[in-house]
Specification:
The complex is a heterodimer of chains A (about 550) and B (about 500). In chain A, strands 4, 5, 6, 7, 10, 11, 12, 13, 14 and 15 form a ten-stranded mixed beta sheet that branches. Chain A has a seven-stranded mixed beta sheet with strand order 19-23-24-28-27-26-25. Chain A is α+β, with helices and mostly antiparallel strands. Helices cover about 30% and strands about 30% of the residues of chain A. In chain B, strands 10-14-15-19-18-17-16 form a seven-stranded mixed beta sheet, sandwiched between helices. Chain B has a four-stranded antiparallel beta sheet with strand order 1-7-2-6. Chain B has a three-stranded antiparallel beta sheet with strand order 3-5-4. Helix content of chain B is about 35%, strand content about 25%. Chain B has helices at about 10-15, 25-30, 35-45, 70-80, 85-90, 95-110, 130-140, 160-165, 180-190, 200-205, 230-245, 260-265, 295-305, 320-325, 335-345, 385-400, 440-445, 460-470, 480-485; strands spanning about 25, 50-65, 85, 110-115, 120-125, 145, 165-180, 195, 210-215, 250, 255-260, 285-290, 325-330, 350-360, 370-380, 405-410, 415-425, 430-440, 455-460. Classes of the chains: A alpha+beta (about 550), B alpha+beta (about 500). Chains A and B meet through helix 8, helix 10, helix 11, strand 19 and strand 21 of A and helix 11, strand 10, strand 12, strand 14 and helix 16 of B.
Chain lengths: ~550, ~500
């Protein structure tokens, strides 16, 4: 989740409250404190509040909570007179654009850093890594309107940000880092979107990279902002967040006229939205028995404006979807820490699940017989599970794109897990007797079946089939009064002639045997091993 | 009577002589004593009068040849049963000298006679039993005998046999000892009737009476023994489950592999949400649940995503895709189980699920790809945020947190959402415990649930690390046998541990 670095003094100045209160209230607007230094604090915010991507947005919310400024923040925007003409051919490439002008900025280093951080967060979050929306910030004074949002061939060239020399679109996509990373966003057409002014100065090649000639620095006074998108609503959400942040930073906002082929509109549209105010719902969800007036005060502290049966909310609040969202806003305005908990008593006793009880009994019984329980991972590697046993990995159950090959397939048996554990414990005294109760996965046709399994392994110089059988039989007899039949069998873990299948009531439930010497050696072990594995499905199904 | 305590070796020697009559030196060595030790104790014991010592020079007679040549001659004649030609007899002997000597002796003793005839000399028996004595003597010697043990009438025959090299006489000095009456008394006094251990025999015969057990060194270390044990994570899980049960919750469980429909879509998580990506979630390769079709509950969930359906929500405003919902994942939380329980609930619910969840993470000291979570829901009339807070505070107090704080948070499926943080005395710090909230109508209405639902998902491993005094999650599943065997036992209060 995204993190914002806040300089304490700057934040306090923006809020206009007491430093102690400002810092103390940060968690109560939903921010996670990640780390604190003497002059700064790093907070993590949730993806539903992209307006918290700068200290301006955070300050705006804190002002409400601390009652420095409550109710709807108002944003005015006059018309800039600038038009953006949209090439209709971009309808299949990257159809939407929304722009704004912000004038009279005084950008210091910290503000620039905050703006860049916000742009990145919006790109990654709402913008879905630029695919859905991408932002360009430009020095307005280097732009001569009208602006054209048009499609160009791959041979079109301009000087991209950071380079004095022009490159073609094709070259940028192939040779630059951002080009390579984001080229998959643009559909494979012969037409690429660029934003240029009337003097053919290229502002940007969205969503890839800006032009060099309109780049922003601390001396920039006036900004031109563009947001291109594949989803019109997301594009205008993103622009609203940027515009309101710039307004809070002291700029005066102006709208830009976007002229599509058959329609036009002025962006940004910062008019507040509204949703129904459901007072009974708010009371029943929060558990707070508040009057209408009290609820309204809480909502105002959350920078919302109730009026009668509706509530108006600022354009940057993209997270308000349902009237129940106002219940949370009420609770936040009230102060989460002020809400008194009530313990929800139960009118009946609880109980373990039958399967849970049985698994617990099984493990307790194995431990009672002197074995040490181990717990290993279900996601494992192919080498330990197939290669070391010289068995085919055809039936393996794989996950896509694992971070590590050590956790790339789902195990089909517990035995290799036990052997891996024994191989890591050769310095420990023998005898070693371990067991595990865990899940294993098998391919059955086009599906994967999950089953609970019990496996045990005995390691010491005299380990034998007989000893393993002794443990297994006494376990089954004690657990479920089960008598089993062991018949000669073969298994990929066990030596020929020292291996048996285990059957209960005519059904196969597992295997038992002495481990093959080739396997023992493959795991780096130096003592004989004997063990068994039982499928617990039937044992778990039986009524206790 | 000699005075002074007996040395333990003297006691052992006397013990070996008790009821044993004369015992020779070599037998005393079989108890593990060294020759010097035995020799010395014989000196001491004899000087005290506890044993008698006999030094014998034993004249040992050894038969060097299987038999005397003249006896061989006689035997051949007996076998023949009639006179044998001299020349035939000669064949049985190694040399002419040997034959002549044999023949000479036999004739001198009048056992045989030799007669000449026209066809050569013949030998025949005169006195068949003449050699009887000699045979008996040789028989004695073959069995091994001492000169003194030989019958008197046979002894005069010896010197000749010795002279002839058929018998060898050697002298061996040997020592043998026998306990005296004083020795027996001294032994009794020294042992005091002590035994090393009780045996079934002593108990059965009653001979244990009057006997003492030799004192042992009770401070000596005993062998190390490791009892069978449960894994500490499972022990802790059991305790947590019991806490839930005591608060009226029923345990539920379910598959680890779930379709994205239930793991994400039913929880109002939009299909392009970053958490659904390959880098965070384990998708099963090339597998899907093809039974999922856009109808019934699936259609209601889909419509809710697209435009809110009838819930009164705006929805996520995008086109919902059935393919995406069919993909199979390893569940990323157990909320998938509690929400499915809601769908099939016939009455108010109070359930929890505690089990493994899976995230596609790089493993490090703070992150695992497989770990445990406990999810719970309470569904019923009149439930609200305050009850959620009440439950969480109560529950964590039970698990040993002295203080619980709740802060606002965000999940796509709850509103309001709360983050749970607890103060641990063990860590002397606040630690993140998990998330919670009231399920949104976008989650509950498509399932046909109109009553409020409180929900939470809380981590387990962090708490276990605290309890065990560790700070690296990976250690929990390293399965170091030394740790599993020798770790201290812990209690639910957390702070009291027994040193193991």
């Amino acid at each position: 989740m995204p993190v914002v670095k806040l300089y304490k003094d700057r934040l306090v100045k923006l809020v206009g409250g007491e430093k102690r209160d400002v810092l103390q209230r940060l968690p109560y607007i939903g921010l996670d404190i990640e780390g604190e230094e003497s002059d700064s604090i790093r907070v993590e915010y949730s993806p539903n509040r992209p307006d918290f991507s700068t200290d301006y947005g955070i300050a705006r919310a804190l002002k409400g909570i601390l009652e420095v400024e409550v109710g709807l923040p108002r944003y005015e925007a006059s018309s800039s007179g600038i038009a953006v003409l949209v090439d209709r051919r971009l309808a299949n490439v990257r159809p939407f654009i929304a722009c704004a002008v912000a004038k009279g900025l005084r950008l210091d280093d910290e503000t620039v850093r905050q703006l860049i951080s916000m742009q990145e967060d919006l790109h990654n979050g709402l913008g879905r890594r630029r695919r859905v929306a991408a932002i360009g910030l430009h020095d307005l004074d280097a732009v001569v309107p009208p602006v054209h949002y048009e499609g160009v061939p791959p041979s079109f060239s301009f000087a991209p940000l950071g380079d004095q020399n022009p490159m073609t679109i094709a070259e940028i996509l192939e040779r630059t880092e951002t080009g390579r990373r984001y080229s998959s966003i643009l559909p494979d057409s012969r037409l690429y979107p660029i934003l240029r002014d009337s003097k053919n100065t290229v502002l940007s090649f969205p969503p890839i990279i800006n032009g060099n000639e309109t780049k922003v620095s601390t001396s920039t006074k006036n900004l031109f902002i563009d947001v291109t998108s594949t989803d019109k609503r997301v594009g205008s959400d993103v622009l609203a967040i940027i515009a309101t942040t710039l307004a809070d930073a002291g700029a005066s906002l102006q709208t830009v006229e976007i002229k599509y082929f058959s329609s036009s509109e002025a962006t940004p549209d910062l008019s507040p939205l509204s949703m129904p105010l459901d007072l009974p719902l708010i009371r029943s969800v929060t558990g707070l028995d508040l009057t209408e007036s009290e609820i309204n005060s809480c909502l105002r502290r959350s920078r919302l404006e109730p009026s009668g049966t509706t509530v108006a909310f600022p354009r940057y609040r993209i997270d308000l979807l349902h009237p129940v969202d106002l219940a949370e806003e009420t609770a936040l305005g009230y102060g989460i820490d002020k809400i008194k908990p009530v313990y929800p008593a139960s009118d009946r006793p609880g109980e373990f699940s039958r399967q849970g009880k049985r698994l617990e009994k099984i493990a307790d019984l194995m431990a009672s017989s002197g074995m040490v329980e181990v717990m290993s991972y279900e996601l494992v590697d192919e080498s330990s599970f197939y290669k070391k046993f010289e068995r085919s990995a055809e039936e393996k159950v794989e996950v896509s794109d694992p971070r590590s090959i050590d956790h790339s397939i789902l195990r089909d048996s517990l035995l290799p897990s036990l052997l891996s554990i024994l191989s890591r414990n050769i310095k420990e005294e023998y005898p070693q007797r371990i067991f595990e109760v865990g899940r294993v996965y098998h391919r059955v046709g086009k599906k994967v079946e999950e089953r609970w399994s019990l496996a045990a392994m005995i390691a010491h110089s005299q380990a034998s089939f007989s000893e393993a059988k002794m443990y297994m039989e006494s376990f089954l007899k004690t657990l479920a009064n089960l008598e089993v039949v062991t018949s000669p069998s073969i298994h990929w873990s066990f030596s020929d002639g020292r291996c048996a299948s285990v059957e209960a009531s005519g059904r196969g439930v597992g295997h038992i045997g002495e481990v093959k010497p080739s396997v023992i050696v493959a795991f780096g072990l130096g003592v004989p091993l004997a063990g068994f594995e039982l499928d617990l499905s039937n044992l778990l199904r039986e009524s206790s | 009577m000699a005075t002074g305590a007996l040395h333990p070796i003297e006691v052992r020697v006397l013990g070996a002589l008790k009821d044993a009559g004369w015992v020779d030196f070599d037998s005393l060595l079989s108890g593990g004593l060294l020759p010097d030790q035995v020799r010395r104790s014989i000196e001491w014991l004899s000087s005290k009068g506890f044993i008698e010592v006999e030094q014998n020079t034993l004249a040992k007679l050894v038969l060097l040849l299987p038999t005397a040549p003249e006896l061989l001659l006689l035997r051949r004649l007996k076998e023949a049963g009639r006179p044998v030609p001299l020349s035939d007899l000669k064949k049985d002997f190694k040399s002419q000298d040997e034959f002549s000597a044999a023949l000479g002796r036999a004739r001198e003793s009048s056992w045989i006679k030799v007669e000449s005839s026209a066809v050569g000399s013949f030998v025949s028996i005169l006195d068949a039993d003449g050699a009887a004595k000699l045979e008996r003597l040789l028989a004695h010697l073959a069995r091994g005998a001492e000169e003194d043990a030989l019958p008197e009438e046979l002894r005069p025959l010896l010197p000749d046999l010795i002279k002839r090299g058929i018998v060898q006489k050697t002298e061996e000095k040997s020592t043998r000892v026998r306990i005296t009456r004083d020795g027996l008394a001294a032994l009794d006094a020294a042992e005091g009737g002590r035994v090393e251990r009780l045996t079934p025999d002593l108990l059965a015969t009653g001979r244990w009476r009057g006997k003492e057990l030799r004192p042992i060194d009770v401070r000596a270390p005993a062998p190390r023994f490791y009892p069978g044990r449960r894994h500490p994570v499972n022990e802790f899980i059991e305790e947590v489950k019991e806490a839930y049960i005591s608060m009226g919750f029923t345990e539920i469980e379910g598959a680890a592999i779930q379709p994205a429909l239930w793991n994400f879509d039913a929880l109002f998580t939009p299909q392009d949400h970053p958490g659904r990506e390959l880098q965070d979630t384990f998708y099963l390769m090339s597998m899907e649940d093809d039974s999922i079709k856009r109808e019934g509950v699936v259609d209601r969930i889909a419509s809710t995503h697209e435009d809110g359906w009838r819930t009164g929500s705006r929805g996520w405003q995008y086109r919902w895709n059935t393919e995406e919902a069919r993909r199979l994942v390893l569940r990323t939380h157990n909320t998938v189980l509690t929400v499915r329980a809601l769908e099939s609930a016939k009455e108010d619910l109070r359930v929890f699920a505690l089990g493994k969840v899976y995230r596609n993470e790089n493993l490090d000291y703070k992150h695992l790809a497989e770990f445990h979570q406990m999810d719970g829901v309470i569904m019923g009339d009149g439930l609200n945020t305050r009850h959620l807070m009440g439950f969480l505070t109560g529950f964590y107090r039970k698990l040993g947190m002295s203080e619980v704080k709740l802060w606002p948070s965000y999940f796509p499926y709850t509103e309001p959402s709360l983050q749970v943080v607890g103060y641990s005395d063990l860590a002397n710090d606040w630690i993140e415990l998990g998330g919670s909230g009231v399920f949104r109508p976008e989650v509950t209405w498509p399932l046909g649930v109109k009553k409020p639902v409180l929900a939470w998902g809380l981590g387990i491993e962090r708490l276990i690390l605290l309890r065990l005094g560790l700070d690296d999650l990976r250690v929990l599943y390293d399965n170091d046998l030394g740790w599993l065997r020798r770790r201290a036992t812990t209690s639910i209060a957390g702070s009291q541990t027994l040193q193991g």
